[in-house]
Amino acid sequence: MSNSVLSVISRFLEEYTTTTPNRLKVVDAYLLYILLTGALQFLYCLLVGTFPFNSFLSGFISCVGCFILAVCLRIQINPQNKGDFLLLNCREPEEGSL
Amino acid sequence: MHRSWLLGCLVLSLALTGVPGLIPTHYLSLSDVARLQSALGQPFTDLESSYYSIVGLTKLGSAVPDHDEVCRFLKSQLDPMSLDSLFFAAEASNAISGCEIPVSNETRDILLAAVSEDSTMAQIHRAVSALSSLGLPVASQEVVAALTARIKKEDNVMAITLALATAAKLPQQAELGAILEEIEDLTARLDDLGGLYLQFEEGLEATAMFVSVAYSLSDHVDMEPPLKEDQVIQLVNSIFSKKSWDSLSEACSVALAAAALSNNRFHVPVIVSAQGPATVSHSQPTLQLLITDVMSQPLATANVLVESAYAVASKSLILSQAPFTLNDGVFELNFMSSQPASGYYQFTVAVTGDSRLVANHVELKVKVSTEVAVTNMDLSVVDKDQSIGSKTTRVDYPSKSKTPFTADSHQNFAMSFQLVDTNTGVELTPHQTFVRLHNQKTGQEVVFVAEPDAKNVYKFELDTAERKSEFDSMSGTYTLCLIVGDATLDNPILWTVADVVLKFLDEEAPATIQPKTLYVPKPEIQHLFREPEKKPPTVVSNTFTALILSPLLLLLILWLKLGANISNFSFSPSTILFHAGHAAMLGLMYVYWTHLDMFQTLKYLAIIGGVTFLAGNHMLAQKAVKRTEKN
């Protein structure tokens, strides 16, 4: 059982690193960062308590907001979604640049 | 406008006659009259104070001592050239008999000259009064004309009152109609205080002067003054509520008002007061009432009648239309002959015999008191499970039971008795029926209430086990007292009935019983400020801060690995401005967190944000241009 899960994960990672363009990977790295930050804040809140509650709310919600905006950006620059966003991203990435 | 309002009020007041209206709450009692006399009778030093004293005392009906001395004083103090001096002397000498002020032609001329439109109202009043007191002829038409003209110019209360006083001195045939109307207008200017008092805002003296002058003028022209009965009573309340007077003129005005109200042709307020407390009992069966005028002089002709007497508790009618008999100046009624039960009775008393009487329907609360006796006092000690029969001991008032009673925790002590009216034999339920147990050794005292049952038999039971907390579980000998009291009882009872030995279980036996301290200072309350919430230890928060910052490191590493770089960074002004603005916004966020409030932050954010937006827009535009150029 775990064997199959592990193999699925490794296959997924392999496909990810090979097929996704660099642009998207940069955004994905940013997304991961935001996710970790938010998750750690939530963990702190669960473990230590909600004092000060305002700080927790502001930190967590700003992480969530940034995450959503970055996800929207990722959807827009994904070349597989080109058909939905004809007027945006008309240019092709240059050589050696994102 | 005044007339129609007055007419409406008259109709309304007619509709309400017969209903007990306002009764005077203040009047001059005999001691008040004596005080007024002593205030007026002080030795006088000048003409003005002599005028007030003499006129006031004469009106009160008391004699002015030593007429000759006074007359000599008046003549010596008189200044024949001064109008005021002539007025005071003339009026004062008129009040004492056998004193004549010499009149010269000059005097007459001065007085007549003062009667004109150009003199003040006070001057006209003094001149006309002096002329009439000295017996000199007065040209009434001139006076009326002068008064009417002055009233228009001097509209205040005192001036119009003086105008009325002047009019009262003129012969009856004079045209006084316009001036009479001023009484109505002045009445309208009175201030109603709480429906009980009616007075001018100028004060007591103005109100008292108005009353005396209004009645003297009304008597003079034989026309009823436009004052309603309630208004008269309100005026009585205002004038006689003050029992010590600031000045001679105030005292004199009160004396004048009192004389006017007790002797005029139209309204005589009557004061009905009980002689002593309004209590009737078997030893004192007559209710005595004093019927007087406002100066506490008994009314010569009066018939006093009880219109109705109701028992307050049962609302049953005891008396109706029962007359009082006059006995040596006091009106008496033998109420006990109607055999009323003890309690309170509401009497409605009517005083008739004179059509001028005002406030002659009075409500009076009369108390009928009686004496109480305790009968059938039975004491017993009952076992709780009632297996052993109780032994009842009868005790007679006022002796004490010889044998003490013992009750321990298995037994109840019981007491039953009846309270009867000694005169009628009716059972009574007084307000206070207490059973007091007093520990002789420790001084403890516990009081219980005995309650009557349906047959009006009082029962008291002491459950030793249940009540031990009130006794602080102190066993010992307690004296049992019965306390009976009520407002309608003439003989409250405090009877030591018996000794009771109480035995309690689990006796703590404190050495001394502290009296229950109720009124000692309580412990001081320290204000507790709001406790700051518990913060987690600094180590934990520092650890987590470091932990939160670690994904940033991860991000940088990942980006470097992916090959993200800033090699394409063009150092154009808009780019720098944009990045600087962005950094400034993040810096502002930190400053907001530490120093600023929202409004300041928004202000700075607007400025920085605007700059950053424009710079960023320019930068992206430049980039797009560069790209299209390349392509």
Automatic annotation (TrEMBL), chain A:
The keyword Ligase does not apply. It is a multi-pass membrane protein. GO terms for cellular component: oligosaccharyltransferase complex. InterPro entries: DAD/Ost2. Belongs to the DAD/OST2 family. PANTHER family: DOLICHYL-DIPHOSPHOOLIGOSACCHARIDE--PROTEIN GLYCOSYLTRANSFERASE SUBUNIT DAD1. This is Dolichyl-diphosphooligosaccharide--protein glycosyltransferase subunit DAD1. It comes from Knipowitschia caucasica.
UniProtKB/TrEMBL annotation, chain B:
InterPro entries: Ribophorin_II_2nd (IPR055375), Ribophorin_II_3rd (IPR055374), Ribophorin_II_C (IPR056790), Ribophorin_II_N (IPR055373), Swp1 (IPR008814). The keyword Endoplasmic reticulum applies. It is found in: Endoplasmic reticulum membrane. Pathway: Protein modification; protein glycosylation. This is Dolichyl-diphosphooligosaccharide--protein glycosyltransferase subunit 2. It comes from Knipowitschia caucasica (Caucasian dwarf goby). It is a multi-pass membrane protein. Belongs to the SWP1 family. Residues 1-21 form the signal peptide. One of its GO terms (cellular component) is oligosaccharyltransferase complex. Its main location: endoplasmic reticulum. Subunit of the oligosaccharyl transferase (OST) complex that catalyzes the initial transfer of a defined glycan (Glc(3)Man(9)GlcNAc(2) in eukaryotes) from the lipid carrier dolichol-pyrophosphate to an asparagine residue within an Asn-X-Ser/Thr consensus motif in nascent polypeptide chains, the first step in protein N-glycosylation. N-glycosylation occurs cotranslationally and the complex associates with the Sec61 complex at the channel-forming translocon complex that mediates protein translocation across the endoplasmic reticulum (ER). All subunits are required for a maximal enzyme activity. The keyword Acetylation does not apply. GO terms for biological process: protein N-linked glycosylation. Residues 270-368 form the Ribophorin II second domain. Pfam families: Ribophorin_II (PF05817), Ribophorin_II_2nd (PF23861), Ribophorin_II_3rd (PF23860), Ribophorin_II_C (PF25147). Keywords: Endoplasmic reticulum, Membrane, Signal, Transmembrane, Transmembrane helix. Residues 529-627 form the Ribophorin II C-terminal domain. Residues 28-262 form the Ribophorin II N-terminal domain. Residues 376-502 form the Ribophorin II third domain.
